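Obj: model holo form, ligand = protoporphyrin IX containing FE.
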Amino acid sequence: MALKALSLLLLEAILIQAGPQSYQNLFLQRINPQYDNTVYGGNLIEDHVYSRAPGKLAPQAPILQSNYHSAPQVAPAIQFNGVAAANGGPLGTLSPNPYGQGFPQLPIPQPTQDPASLGCGQAPGFCPKSRYRSYDGSCNNLNNPGLGIPQTRYNRLLPAKYGDGISTPTMALSGNPLPSARAVSFSMYPDIPIEDPIWTLNAMQYGQIITHDMSMIVGSTQTQPHATRCCSPDGQLLDLANSPEHCFPIVVPQNDPAYSQQNIRCMNFVRTITDKDRRCIGDHQPAEQLTAVNSYLDLSIVYGNNDQVNQQVRLFQGGRLISEQRNSQEWLPRNPNATGACTLLDINEPCYLAGDTRVNQNPQLTVLQTLLLREHNRIASVLASINPHWDDETIFQEARKINIGQHQQISYYEWLPIFIGLDNSLKNKILWRTQGYVDDYDPTVNPSVLNEHANAAFRFFHTLIAGQLDLVSERRNSYGNIRISDWFNRPAILEQGNSFDELTRGLGTQPELAADAYHDREITLNWLRQPGQPLGQDLKAICIQRNRDHGLASYNDYRSFCGLPKASSFQDFLDVISRDNVERLATLYEHPDDVDLTVGGSLETIIPGTLAGPTFLCILTEQFYRTRVGDRFWFENSGETGFTQQQLAEIRKSSIARIMCDNGRGVRAMQPRAFERISQSNAVVPCEALPVVDLSLWKDLKGGSSHIPSAGFGTSDYYFKK
Ligand code: HEM
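Output (holo structure tokens):
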């Protein structure tokens, strides 16, 4: 062991000596100090990690030509592993191009437009040739320009198992209702605060940034109580006749340890909007839920998911995003609908506008959104000063491209190994040990977010959320903390005193909670707690109910999909779930096949070197593979959409620590790996000591190696639909 530690230190020293170019390697080597083959018995990871071997590959996207909402037919389901995959269907079949073959005249939805009229995603008729991404993700895939755009279907690894086979929520095998989601939540997920020994709250929070970048169920704000009320004002169940459409309320059992004391028997829950609700499919075809944002990891949370939102957040001057100066700091612009969008206690409190509507949901999320906005404007200022001849559009697009490149680098090389493991990521070609291009874009891979990923596996990381947020000084002392449920959807705290910088340092200092079955009560009892109220809602129960709403196949189905033996008795779950939890499951559920994916997956023993058990790891791995390989604009790709070799080497130096340093006004020092707790080997250093992305590489030398062509394109520069 001592030898091992010594060799790690030596390796680090060599890497540091090798200079900033090797910074990415520093992350790769050191990202998971907890993973140690000798400690965990050799090949544990090898044994359990899902391998994307050809025979086991999840179904790839059939690259079809269109996704128009008028396409009523569904392509035949693909066969894989002897199972019919549902994702052959939802993509729809070729339908005629309604926009003709001229200049694109897209039916751009107006902000006030009824979302129902958006159908199931409207792909453009053809794609302008561009070095830059579109805002909605259209034309990323030139064979299927609508792939991954907003208002389209989540993809699926396994077909849905609705109660009626078509759209009603999942039932038990017997035909009985499944156990109350709230009963499952309070029985399985107590509040036992165990801190993660290695990772900071920043790792949790950046995870939420990544998920908001990739998906959002249609029909819910995820920030405020739903306008549709499925319970009576005093928390009782409504009779079916009086229940509004799409209601699927959570039944609170009489023996509930918390809610029964308030005599609450019903928790609001409104079903996700599907392609069936939008009439995009025939009556007898199974429903697929829609996502409101594009699937690409493209900082759409900053730049918006369509042209209209992008126009609302852009200054159209100097390539900058709109920001407001107060107290010598740069803030996100005010939301013009502050009273509607935020829970304000005072009309003058700030409520922000960003590319994503969830920006105000919790203080630490808003901190990161603000840092990413400031980073764009910081980059834009540098580009404008070194290229005074560039117009607003060129500066904006180049700054956006750099910001996205840094975000992809940080998400994959710094954040992802913590969550899905370094070995696993390398083995599955999600990460590469290279300084050069990777060029693994594959147009046959569907980047659409998997329903199982967004609505079960990735939500597991709600377990990492801490209920109290530390306010931390530059000397890394805690001044105190704030209670998260006092500040849901109320970002006013950021502008009080030095809170912004204190919360920023808190992200890098406070540990996240451990990846386990325990959840902070701020999430399981106080989600969306209203001022003066003793209790809010239970996010864990909502996630269990969402799993059923989406008709996800059972935990047992995914076990076998991911290579674990299919269980025929509860006892068979003992291979990866503790005896206590298996016994609890057996008292709640009638049959092992009834156990919800969200529940079973979250109880599995965590694979060392990752933050997930084998089944969720398999789903997460599949998603993050698709997200990179299915993105034509991925930052490690060469060609006219990519960076030069030298620029790419600079992007690889970016780190979350440097983003926090450069954009937190009073943040003067940070540990190099800011997703990892401060320690002797990850000590706080002055910001200037952290590797920096040298933006002079973007100086336009007019014909030189780093010449940046104009953002414009001629009329002949179009990729026509094949
Ligand atoms: C304080 C932090 C967080 C809060 C308050 C929060 C809250 C929520 C809420 C309210 C929803 C929607 C529930 C529903 O109606 O179905 C949601 C969805 C989700 N959350 Fe979180 N969350 C937090 C952090 C995280 C983190 C750290 C992750 C992962 C690393 C995560 C992953 C997800 C995912 C994947 C979804 C589904 C996204 C979609 O709509 O497609 N969340 N969360």
